[in-house]
Amino acid sequence: MIQRMLILKQYLKPGKTLILLGPRRVGKTTLMNSFLQKSPKKILTYDGTSVDTQELFSTPSLEKLKQIVGQADILAIDEAQNIKNIGQSLKLINDHLPDTAVIATGSSAFEINGQVGEPLVGRKTTCYLFPFSVEEILNSQKTANPELTLKYLLDNLLVFGTYPDVINNADRKTRRFFLRELVDSLLLKDILAYQEVKSSQVLLDLLKLLAFQVGGEVSLSELGGNLGIDKKTVGRYLDLLEKTYIIFQLRGYSRNLRKEISKKAKYFFYDLGVRNAIINNFNNLNTRDDVGRLWENFCLAERMKARNYKQIYANQYFWRTWRGQEIDLLEEKDGKIFAYEMKWNSQKARNKPPTEWLAEYGESNFTVITPENVLDFLVKN
């Protein structure tokens, strides 16, 4: 089994709630169960999809909760987003049973309908689990030459992504079937269950437009025109797609508004297998015309996972001027700016940043990320 980088033990505290969030099918339940099986403490576990569990926790009563929890050291609730008023119940447990630590897994429904935000202010820690990271995959290989191993794996990673069901199955047809099923049945489940959305087809059409322009700046008006919906609705749908861990955005960076673009955003996919399933393109890299976009998305998504798991706190942006000079990723941390350009073909990579960048931010670090040095960017950096 591939070992995850997220260590739950360091976040679980008595009198507090640990919320484990992330996309569906990334292994949240597996990770929680693996941790609980190794713990010597007294543990109570509940399945949030069970009607009995929902009845127990949906009507908060302190006396009832004391009877349920008893002397347990850890209360674990899987799929807790299915339980009405779960935030209020967890608040009562945290406040009145200070010796009990709570861990609850949940899908994006927690984020969408705000079940745990206000009730657990100051009482919770939120951790995020994503599809496997490159570092997790390479660690499982126990390879003496991780650079060479990654180079061998890249074609499949850029086409099929890193969901556990994909990585644990080498058959291409099985991988395609899983990703198609994920997109068709599960990807939008939380949005459609908790939000008023015109139709699932509009959301899929929006995702398809975003998939075809990965790495490009997005115009809400243009997207709305293509979809037959207004700009405000497009913005709401994009927000929902971010909260369901399907896409994430980069905003433009600027210190000089006359020269630099700062109001637009670029959208990327958390997983490239999902992106390719949306446009139904699982062709090998040597037959594709979007390898550059795939590479940029891959680097940004993997860097996001690394920042999350290693607690690297940084603001991230893209940079572009009205004259068309651009840099793919800026990280602003500890008062410094680090600039990164993603290039699949190292022979076409430039060694210096754009001239306008040099004139404005000359002392900033600039690195070109290619398949040859990406491991330093994702693992060692």
Give the gist of this structure.
Helix content is 44%, strand content 17%. With 381 residues, the chain is of the alpha/beta class.
Give an overview of the whole structure.
This protein is globular. With 381 residues, it is an alpha/beta fold. Helix 7 runs parallel beside helix 14 (272-278), helix 9 (172-186) crosses helix 14 (272-278) and helix 15 (291-310) packs parallel to helix 17 (374-380). The chain is built from 17 helices and twelve strands. The relative contact order is 0.10. A seven-stranded mixed β-sheet has the order 6-8-7-9-10-11-12. A five-stranded parallel β-sheet has the order 2-3-4-1-5. Among the domains are: 8-128, Rossmann fold; 134-247 and 271-286, no CATH class. Residues 14-136 form the AAA+ ATPase domain. It comes from Termititenax aidoneus. This is AAA family ATPase.
Element layout with pairings:
Elements: E1 17-21, H1 28-38, E2 43-47, H2 51-58, H3 62-69, E3 74-78, H4 86-96, E4 101-106, H5 109-113, E5 124-128, H6 134-141, H7 146-160, H8 164-167, H9 172-186, H10 189-194, H11 200-212, E6 217-218, H12 220-227, H13 231-243, E7 247-252, E8 265-269, H14 272-278, H15 291-310, E9 315-320, E10 326-333, E11 336-342, H16 355-361, E12 365-369, H17 374-380
Parallel strand pairs: 1-4, 1-5, 2-3, 3-4, 7-9, 11-12
Antiparallel strand pairs: 6-8, 7-8, 9-10, 10-11
Helix pairs in contact: 3-4, 7-14, 9-14, 12-13, 15-17
